[in-house]
Design a protein that fits this description.
- The protein is of the alpha+beta class.
- It has a single domain, classed as 2-Layer Sandwich (Alpha-Beta Plaits), CATH 3.30.70.1660.
- Helix content is about 50%, strand content about 15%.
- A 3-stranded antiparallel beta sheet has the order 1-2-3, with no helix packed on it.
- Strand 1 and strand 2 form a beta hairpin.
- The longest helix has 17 residues.
- The protein is elongated.
Length: about 70
């Protein structure tokens, strides 16, 4: 019984995973154009250095604003 529960739980986890392939990227860093863009929210900034230094608060805010309604509907 315990083994069946573990298998069911593992299958649930595996079903939720996405394949890592082209088109499922989250963020692009384009140094020549001095741009960082989040593909999930379309938020972008030209302050590449700040993002590389870890200043990603605006990306987090954009993500939370974009997907906040999704969890309420589920």
């Amino acid at each position: 019984l315990e083994l069946e529960k573990r298998r069911a739980e593992q299958q649930k986890i595996e079903a939720g995973k996405k394949k890592i392939e082209w088109g499922s990227q989250i963020r692009s860093y384009v140094f020549d154009d001095r741009r960082v863009k989040d593909h999930r929210t379309n938020y972008q900034t030209s302050n590449v250095q700040a993002v590389m230094d870890g200043d990603i608060d605006e990306f987090i805010k954009a993500y939370l604003m974009e997907f906040a309604g999704e969890s309420e509907q589920d």
